[in-house]
Design goal:
Strand order of the largest sheet: 3-2-1-4-5-6-7
Distance between the termini: 59 Å
Shape: globular
Keywords: Oxidoreductase
CATH topology: Rossmann fold
Helix content: 40-55%
CATH superfamily: NAD(P)-binding Rossmann-like Domain
Organism: Actinomadura macrotermitis
Bound molecules: NADP nicotinamide-adenine-dinucleotide phosphate
Oligomer: single chain
Radius of gyration: 18 Å
Structural class: alpha/beta
Protein name: Serine 3-dehydrogenase
Order of helices and strands: EHEHEHEHEHEHHHEHH
Domain Ketoreductase: 5-171
Number of strands: 7
Number of domains: 1
EC number: 1.1.1.276
Largest sheet: 7 strands, parallel
Low-confidence stretches: none
Strand content: 5-15%
């Protein structure tokens, strides 16, 4: 019997990450689930173990704003004898307060979580994937990566970085059997806006803009299977991404200033 492939999923305690866990478990993957809320991860691991016999669902508590976290996760995977075949770089959040009013530690944490830790985890798993000549990396970007700059938030810039680096890595690694996909959802029904503190404003947005995490993950994983470097799930998001991308700089700036529903003062 061949050993099942293993996926490492960050931010698996909620939303898109937990949905990826269920999606991949149903497809025979073993999982290493990472987030800060261990109780949530353990509940999910128990749920999956009750549904799928003979698979390993490991849990590792990590705060990815801690620079030591990516190495600690990989040390744990090594100690457990888990080769990481799939990396779902998903953990993330958006700040809400204006840049100048936000303590530097908070901003540095966002960069560490969604830029440095994400990039370092990819760097740590790639050598093993190269050796085995097979690997899949999904980096959670956002349709915001195509949008005009959002006033005062790091989020748009961070997700643009993720979109850019994912394509560069895909180009470099495809010859080694490793596909990298930037998954760029739009508004998705998860805990994201509760954490951001924008639930009331988010609830006022038209329903047509929203997707369920199951739809995002199904389309995203399909794109991964097909070796696509970028996936914008859902028709409305696809249209938005195409419409926003070629905006001239001045128009993009104006749109960023006027259209952002979560703009802070
Ligand atoms: N929902 C949307 O509308 C939307 C749209 C576009 C892109 N995205 C992206 O999709 C990804 C997943 O978001 P979501 O919508 O599923 O949000 P969510 O429901 O709030 O889930 C976020 C996940 O990230 C984890 N996380 C946050 N900070 C962490 C930290 N310091 N260390 C470790 N884990 C951390 C959380 O776990 P713990 O709190 O337990 O640590 C949780 O599991 C994010 O990268 C987000 O930017 C979301």
């Amino acid at each position: 019997m061949t050993t099942p492939r293993t996926a490492l999923i960050t931010g698996a305690s909620a939303g898109i990450g937990a949905t990826f866990a269920r999606h991949l478990a149903a497809r025979g993957y073993q999982l290493l689930l990472v987030a800060r809320r261990t109780d949530r991860l353990q509940e999910l691991a128990a749920e999956l173990a009750s549904q799928h016999d003979g698979r390993r669902y490991e849990v590792f508590a990590a705060d990815l704003t801690d620079p030591a976290a990516p190495k600690a996760i990989m040390d744990y995977a090594d100690a457990q004898g888990l080769d990481i075949d799939v990396l779902i770089n998903n953990a993330g959040l958006s700040g809400k307060t204006a840049f100048a009013d936000t303590p530097w530690d908070t901003l540095a944490g966002e960069i560490q979580l969604m830029v440095t830790a994400q990039t370092e985890l990819a760097h740590l798993v790639i050598p093993g994937m190269k050796e085995r000549r097979w690997g899949r990396i999904v980096n959670l970007s956002s349709v915001a990566a195509f949008a005009p700059p959002a006033a005062s938030l790091l989020y748009t810039g961070i997700k643009s970085y993720v979109l850019n680096i994912s394509q560069a890595l895909d180009m470099e690694l495809k010859p080694h059997g490793i596909h990298v996909t930037a998954l760029c959802p739009g508004f998705t029904r998860t805990e994201f806006h509760d954490v951001m503190g924008t639930r009331d404003k988010a609830n006022r947005l038209p329903r047509i803009l929203w997707q369920q995490p199951e739809a995002v993950v199904a389309e995203g994983w399909n794109a991964v299977q097909n070796g696509k470097p970028v996936c914008v799930p859902g028709l409305v998001n696809k249209i938005s991404a195409v419409a926003m991308k070629p905006l001239p700089v001045r128009l993009g700036y104006l749109a960023g200033r006027t259209l952002n529903p979560f703009k802070n003062s």
